[in-house]
């Protein structure tokens, strides 16, 4: 999934997902925040200070929540120069000159563009969706707005979306029945069946082989995707990779 190749490119940028695709990943993983004017974009941190040049562009707003910026403000920021400056991974020295130039020119990536890229390459997508802070215009409609982008603006085929957010899950299933409902924590099999969960996104250490076999027998539609360690365990036929 996408986070692994953040070692080769600035995280949550177009370049990082292109690298992920080049290395043959089955899917792309990211984090989604919603701008003050309702544009979902990719950002892991609650602020922009670590992964953008906000200190240079908006020096008085470095501590402000990322969701409180308009998209016009966000798209002015560079989201790649920090990667070359801070060199967060030991493999940084192996980047080609072309890769360094590409990294230097990355910007904040819109969710809609991310989804179009995934669809064009037939890749699954999974993302953590962050609820905006208090007094944000989309505080109470964050899921609705995200669904609008996925269903009406991105063009991604629904079966490629592994829907992880637990809030309003029944509503999401009613308007987007093609999404693959995914759970990010362990739960009783009865709950998995009730919520139509078909995938589990868990750390490798959170499920034993016995747990997986039990789910395989009790909920044969469920598939355990252990993306945090970049492993895949298929419960349906109890194959362990």
UniProtKB/TrEMBL annotation:
GO terms, molecular function: glycerophosphodiester phosphodiesterase activity
Coiled-coil segments: none
Topology of the protein relative to the lipid bilayer: Multi-pass membrane protein
Localisation per UniProt entry: Membrane
Gene3D superfamilies cross-referenced by the UniProt entry: Phosphatidylinositol (PI) phosphodiesterase
Pfam families: GDPD (PF03009)
Keywords: Glycoprotein, Hydrolase, Membrane, Transmembrane, Transmembrane helix
PROSITE patterns: GP_PDE, PIPLC_X_DOMAIN
InterPro entries per UniProt: GP_PDE_dom, PLC-like_Pdiesterase_TIM-brl
GO terms for biological process, alphabetical: lipid metabolic process
Main location: membrane
Domain of life: Eukaryota
Similarity annotation: Belongs to the glycerophosphoryl diester phosphodiesterase family.
Protein name, entry field: GP-PDE domain-containing protein
Native source organism of the sequence: Meleagris gallopavo
Gene assigned in the entry: LOC104909393
